[in-house]
């Protein structure tokens, strides 16, 4: 009887101890996740809104996908997008981040435009942000994936 | 004899329960003592996230044409002061918004012009804005802290609206929160 009571009390206190340490570690993970999501979301949003020599980046992406634009949009995206992202990663102190961006059709059949390291998309520890670009009724879903190298 | 034995058993049980409760309390409070430091750090990290979110959604600093936020208006940044922002956000933090100038505009130039172009661009990139040099500047700083202060830094990409050119440039906001101690 005594042994049972003691055993139950010990189990209860150990569970309380473990639970409080688990809560503490979860809070840290939540903050990290919140920051990473904010980072990816802002990276995508800011990039697409930026004015470039070829026009607004979202228009350049539309040009690369659907054709048209002020200049060779496909070449511009291939050449300049990595350098824009690289300057963001350097300026934010995240040279340890790797990235992948893709534009895929949402409401029509079409190919997928991709930039960066495709392995990042398949990685289990990557996080992502997405937005939609519309052109003449066609919706293009643009996603960016980020992970630590 | 039997009742004496059961009283003894009862007393032993109570004593053991008291000892276990005391050990558990020591464990829990000891654990709490050691986690105070990490809790404080988490509080600072939460504060840094809060600052980032406050800045990118602040109507006092952002261009209101862009409802999703994260578009700072360079004229609003230039007139804002640390004191104004401290009344909203409290003290013990630092913020910097920097425009990322596109160096690729220099790469298209002939070799003999390229280096000068890069030098001029980098010089311009490091100019901190004041009311006197606006808009020929690229960095806005608020509530600079002492160099010796220990800080947690967080940075995210943003845009900066350049009123003079009516263009949206790529930028970065960095906030720092004092960790204290």
How many domains of chain B?
Answer: 1
Order of helices and strands of chain B: HEHHEHHEEE
Radius of gyration of CA atoms of chain B, rounded to a whole number: 28 Å
**% residues in beta strands of chain A:** 15-25%
Terminal CA distance of chain A: 56 Å
Overall description:
The complex is a heterodimer of chains A (149) and B (181). In chain A, 54% of the residues lie in helices and 25% in strands. With 149 residues, chain A is of the alpha+beta class. In chain A, the strands form 2 sheets. Chain A has a 4-stranded antiparallel beta sheet with strand order 4-3-6-5. In chain A, a hairpin with a 7-residue loop joins strand 3 and strand 4 (113-116). In chain A, helix 2 (57-66) packs antiparallel against helix 3 (73-91). The longest helix of chain A is centred in the first third of the chain and has 48 residues, at 2-49. Chain A is elongated. With 181 residues, chain B is of the alpha+beta class. Chain B has one domain (47-178). Chain B contains 5 helices and 5 strands; from the N terminus they run αβααβααβββ. Chain B has a 5-stranded mixed beta sheet. The longest helix of chain B is centred in the N-terminal third of the chain and has 56 residues, at 2-57. Chain B is elongated, with a radius of gyration of 28 Å. The model of chain B has no long low-confidence stretch (mean pLDDT 87). Classes of the chains: A alpha+beta (149), B alpha+beta (181). At the A-B interface, helix 1, strand 1 and helix 3 of A face helix 1, strand 4 and strand 5 of B.
Q: Which helices and strands appear, and what pairs or packs with what?
A:
The complex is a heterodimer of chains A (149) and B (181).
Chain A: H1 2-49, E1 51-52, E2 55-56, H2 57-66, H3 73-91, E3 97-105, E4 113-116, H4 119-122, E5 127-135, E6 138-148
Antiparallel strand pairs in A: 1-2, 3-4, 3-6, 5-6
Helix pairs in contact in A: 2-3
Chain B: H1 2-57, E1 71-73, H2 74-79, H3 82-89, E2 93-99, H4 104-107, H5 111-125, E3 139-142, E4 151-162, E5 167-178
């Amino acid at each position: 009887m005594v042994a049972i009571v003691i055993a139950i009390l010990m189990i209860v206190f150990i569970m309380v101890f473990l639970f409080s340490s688990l809560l503490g570690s979860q809070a840290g993970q939540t903050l990290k996740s919140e920051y990473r999501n904010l980072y990816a979301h802002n990276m995508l949003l800011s990039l697409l809104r930026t004015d470039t020599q070829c026009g607004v980046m979202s228009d350049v992406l539309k040009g690369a996908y659907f054709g048209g634009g002020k200049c060779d949009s496909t070449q511009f995206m291939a050449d300049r997008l990595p350098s824009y992202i690289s300057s963001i990663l350097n300026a934010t102190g995240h040279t340890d981040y790797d990235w992948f961006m893709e534009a895929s059709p949402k409401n029509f059949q079409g190919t997928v435009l991709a930039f960066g390291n495709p392995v990042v998309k398949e990685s289990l520890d990557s996080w992502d942000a997405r937005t939609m670009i519309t052109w003449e009724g066609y919706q293009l879903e643009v996603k960016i994936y980020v992970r630590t190298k | 004899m039997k009742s004496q034995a059961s009283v003894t058993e009862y007393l032993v049980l109570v004593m053991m329960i008291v000892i276990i409760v005391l050990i558990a309390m020591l464990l829990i409070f000891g654990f709490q003592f050691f986690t105070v430091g990490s809790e404080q750090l988490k509080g600072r990290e939460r504060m840094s996230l809060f600052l980032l979110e406050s800045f990118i959604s602040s109507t006092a600093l952002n261009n209101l044409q862009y409802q999703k936020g994260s578009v700072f208006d360079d004229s609003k940044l230039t007139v804002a002061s640390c004191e104004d922002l401290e009344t909203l956000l409290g003290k013990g933090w630092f913020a910097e918004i920097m425009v990322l100038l596109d160096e690729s505009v220099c790469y298209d130039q002939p070799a003999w012009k390229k280096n000068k172009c890069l030098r001029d661009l980098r010089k311009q990139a490091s100019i901190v804005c004041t009311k006197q040099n606006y808009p020929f500047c690229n960095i806005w700083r608020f509530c600079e802290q002492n160099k010796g202060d220990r800080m947690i830094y967080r940075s995210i990409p943003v845009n900066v609206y350049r009123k003079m050119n009516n263009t949206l440039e790529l930028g970065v906001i960095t906030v720092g929160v004092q960790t204290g101690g």
